[in-house]
Amino acid sequence: MSGPADPSWHREREKQIIEHVEKLLGDSRLSVQTTGGRKHAIMLARDVMPSDHEVELKRMMMQKGIHDYAVQGRMPLGREVSITLRRKRFFLFWSIVGDMKVVCISPWQDLLTGQDPRPADVGDVKAALDRLHKFHGVPQTVVLVSTSGFTESARDLAEQRGQQIAILAEPTAGGGWRVKGPAGEEALLNLIDPEEDEQKRQRVRAEIDKAKVELLSGGVSAEKIAQRADLPLRMVEDEVKSYAKEHGLSARKLDGALLMYREGSGLGSPARNGGSDMPFIERLKSLFSMRGETEKKITLLSERRAALSQQRDQGFEEMAALETQESQLKEDFKNTTSNLTKKRLTSQLLQLRKDLERRQQVLGMLNQQINVVSTHLHNLELVQQGSSAKLPDSEELAGDAAKAEEVMAELQASYEVAGSVSAAGPSGMSDEEQALFEELEKEMNPAKAEAAPAEKTPAQGGAVRTPAEKGPSVAAEVPQVPDSPAKARERRAELG
Questions:
Q1: What is the DSSP letter of 211?
Q2: Judging by DSSP bridges, how do beta strands 80-89 and 93-105 pair with one another?
Q3: Beta-carbon-side half-sphere exposure of residue 111 (alpha carbons within 13 Å)
Q4: Cβ atoms of residues 191 and 30 within 8 Å
C-alpha cells in the first residue's frame, strides 16, 4: 500500500496513531509483556516520553534547497513515544519491568520530491528496530508505523525475536488500518488499531452502498466486501447480515459463501413479498388461501440469480487473469532470441487461448441463464403486482364517472350564478357614495378638478355633447341673451 503524495495525509496518520496509543495507557484492557509476565499497564507506573525527528527533517530540506516553511508544516515529523513501565521493589526502589515504543517512519525523500511514496521494505524495518534502545533483560514491545505501508516481505518481520515483539501498523487506502503481529497477540493488535469498531462498520456499509448496482442484477458477496474494506471476514459477515435485515434484503450462504441479494425487483421488502420475514399470521393466510406459490418462486429465483451472478463474476476474474498471462507471454516472446523458448511460448499461448475460448463459452451460457431467470422473475413480479393492486371494475369506474359529471355540472351552475351577482353594478357604489367620492376627489386634488373640462350631468339638462359630436350648423349658433328691463322699454319706445 502506498499512501498519497500529499505530506499532510502522512502527518495526520502519524498524529492519529500516536494519540491513540497515548489514550490506551489509561485503558484497563492494555496488557504487555513484562519481567513478571503479561501485566496490565494501568497497574504499573508509566514514564511517557514523546519525541520526533523534526531537526533531521529540517537538515534534509536544507540539503535539497527547500526553505518553504509551509512545506515543513505539512510534512510528517517521524514522531515516537517511549513508554517505560516501572514497579516498586521492597516498597522503596523502582525497577523497570517493561518497555513499549511507538516509532513512525515516513518517506521523506519521496514526499519532498513530489514522487509517489514507496512502502517500507525489509531494510527499513530492520534499521528502525536495530536503532532502538533496549533495557537488558526487559521485554520490549515495539509498534512500528509506516504511513506509506510495508512490502509483503517486510510484513513477515512482524514477529517475536527474543524479548522483542515487533508489531507493524500501516494505514489502508480505504481509511482504516492494518495491524500485524506475532501469534498470540491478537488482543493487543485489536487495541492498537486506531479505528473504532463503529468506524469499521460504517466502512462496511459504505462499501455495500457502492455495490448497490450489483444488487440489481445479482448479489454482493461478503468476501468481496471484506477484500475491498480490508477487514476481517467474520466481522464483515455480521455487518452484512445486519444491513440486510434493516433494508429488507436477504443474506444467505450459497455455495459456501455469504451472499446478500434482493428478492425480486426491490419494490417491496421480503415481508411484503412473502419472504422469510413475513409475519406468522400472514404466512398462514397465504398458505390456506393458496397464494404463497408465487412468493416462493420469487424467493427461489432470486437466490438462483444471485448464485449465477457470483459464478459469472468469478469467471470474469479468471478471464482477466488469463488475459494478463497472455500479455506477459507475448512480451516474453518479443524479448527472447532463442527459438526453443519461442516454441515453448507459442505452445503456451495456444493452450491459453483455448482456455480463454472455453471460459468465454461458459460465460455466455451463464449470461443466458441469468437472462432467463431474470425474465421469469420479472413476469412473476408483474403477476404479483397486478393481483395485489385491487383495482375497481368497469361498472364501478362508469358509476364514479357519472357522479363526477353531475358534480361538475352543479359546480358550473354555481359559478355562473356567482358571476352574475358580482356584476350587478359597474362601479360597486351607490349614487350617494359616488357623489361623495367625487366631492372628496375635488377637495383632495383641486388642481386636477380645475383642469378637467366642465361636463353636463343628466340632471342639468341632458347629455353633454362634445364639439366633435355637434353638427356644423349647431357649432355656428350664438346663444340668445335676454335684454334687461330698461333696454326693453327703450326698444318699445323706438318702435312707437
A1: T
A2: antiparallel
A3: 26
A4: yes
Residue 119: C-alpha distances to residues 83, 165, 229, 265 (Å): 27, 21, 20, 45
Main-chain phi, psi angles of 65, to 5 degrees? 75, 25
E strand residue ranges, 177-297: 177-180, 219-221, 250-254, 257-261
Those residues with Cβ within 8 angstroms of residue 474's Cβ, 6 or more apart along the chain or in another chain:
none
CA Rg value for the chain: 47
- CA torsion 301-306-309-311 (nearest 10°) is -100
Q: Is 443 helix (H, G, I), strand (E, B) or coil?
A: helix
DSSP state letter for 101: E
The maximal CA–CA distance of the chain, rounded, in angstroms, is 170
The whole-number mean pLDDT for each consecutive block of 10 residues of the chain, a chain of 496 residues, reads 77 93 90 91 92 92 90 92 89 86 92 90 93 91 94 92 92 86 90 88 87 71 86 88 85 82 54 45 51 71 78 80 84 87 86 84 84 80 71 76 83 77 55 80 74 50 45 45 59 63
This prediction's pTM: 0.55
- Residue 235's contacts (CB-CB under 8 Å, 6 or more residues apart) are 200, 204
Distances (CA, A) of 430 to 418, 420, 421, 424, 455: 20, 18, 16, 11, 21
